[in-house]
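ok new one. same drill as before - structure tokens go in, u give me an amino acid for every spot. 362 of them this time. try not to just spam alanines like last time pls lmao
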């Protein structure tokens, strides 16, 4: 039914975002491996910081986020003035689309790219343009071929979700260098901390005028419930984003908890090491029962099944056992399941359950 009151074009094309499942009817306890959350739980440092601001909740929060930006800058060796904070990297993706795109413009994302790029482009009235990947890996040449005079933004997650694959700095550098100068490359570094020694693209941002990097506290920092993300970009981009940012887009609890977490380097180092250890174990154990995956650079494994039917049946089998993993048909990977690297007992449980499902429990 159509209404006399209509939203602007594009809005009704947006299908609501489907988050990872978190409940199974009739079960009180589930193992949630569907949203790439850090199984360690939030850092103690962040919990302590939260308690200390409970008596301050009648006060409006900081509007310039100076303390959090300084902490991020010190930890990552960046300039605080080139950082902007948002309610998750989702808000930064949204701000980028709001500020740089609109009707008559195009936003490039890749075949298996994160859903928010398309949704935010549509919300801004722009046209999302999907570019094919090559065997679940972003293809720089295909992106460059898809650029038109209407293109304004190119979104690439590196490492990518849900594939877990990653482009090297040569490929990313070439993409940035060969894009027309009026196109902004957005490097989504939601999983950057899982790659030892990787800067998420920060150096490229510092060298160029057409690259911005987004980061999040939702993944390795284990603060997805808080909603804090940030972006690092050239001054002209940060200035533009600051103009579309709501003045109080982050609350005091978010600001102080994220600040404590980003200074807590031990937490990140431990989480990275534990993830790498269990990810290797998980991928190998799955391969031994015939479930293959690409080498993952993030905190999940994209398990490939023989068919879409088998993937759907396996997800239901796991769910009935209280194990929640992610169906990724919406990402054009209907024969795959994305499995977050949980703690060690969860990794063992999910492998044993898949082995049973495959009829290989010995
Ligand atoms: C999880 C994720 C994010 C993080 O989103 P937040 O809004 O910061 O929670 C961003 N990009 C990708 C590719 C992700 O997988």
């Amino acid at each position: 039914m159509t209404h006399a009151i209509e939203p602007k074009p594009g809005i009704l094309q947006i299908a609501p975002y489907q988050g990872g499942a978190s409940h199974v009817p009739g079960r009180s306890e589930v193992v949630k491996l569907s949203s790439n959350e850090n199984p360690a739980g939030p850092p103690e440092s962040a919990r302590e910081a939260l308690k200390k601001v409970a008596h301050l909740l009648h006060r409006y929060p900081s509007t310039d986020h100076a303390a959090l930006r300084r902490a991020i800058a010190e930890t990552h060796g960046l300039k605080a003035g080139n950082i902007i904070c948002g309610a998750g990297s989702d808000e930064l993706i949204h701000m980028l689309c709001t500020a740089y795109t609109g009707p008559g413009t195009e936003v490039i994302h890749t075949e298996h790219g994160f859903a928010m790029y398309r949704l935010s482009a549509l919300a801004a009235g722009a046209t999302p343009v999907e570019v094919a990947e090559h065997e679940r890996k972003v293809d720089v040449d295909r992106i460059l071929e898809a650029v038109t005079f209407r293109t304004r933004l190119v979104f690439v997650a590196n490492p990518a979700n849900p594939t877990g694959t990653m482009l090297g700095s040569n490929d990313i550098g070439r993409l940035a260098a060969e894009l027309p100068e009026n196109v902004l490359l957005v490097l989504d570094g939601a999983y950057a901390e899982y790659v030892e020694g990787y800067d998420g693209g920060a150096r490229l941002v510092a060298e160029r005028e057409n690259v911005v990097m987004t980061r999040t506290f939702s993944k390795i920092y284990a603060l997805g419930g808080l909603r804090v993300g940030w972006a690092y970009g050239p001054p002209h981009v940060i200035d533009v984003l600051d103009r579309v940012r709501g003045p109080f887009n982050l609350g005091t609890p978010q600001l102080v908890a994220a600040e404590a977490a980003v200074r807590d380097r031990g937490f990140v180092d431990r989480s990275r090491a534990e993830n790498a250890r269990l990810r290797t174990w998980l991928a190998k154990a799955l391969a031994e029962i015939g479930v293959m995956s690409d080498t993952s650079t993030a905190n999940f494994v994209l398990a490939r099944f023989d068919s879409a039917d088998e993937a759907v049946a396996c997800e239901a089998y796991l769910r009935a056992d209280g194990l929640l993993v992610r169906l990724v048909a919406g990402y054009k990977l209907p024969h795959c399941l994305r499995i977050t690297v949980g703690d060690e007992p969860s990794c063992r449980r999910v492998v044993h359950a898949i082995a049973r499902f495959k009829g290989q429990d010995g």
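The chain has a mean pLDDT of 96. and btw Residues 44-264 form a domain with the Aspartate Aminotransferase; domain 2 fold (CATH 3.40.640.10).
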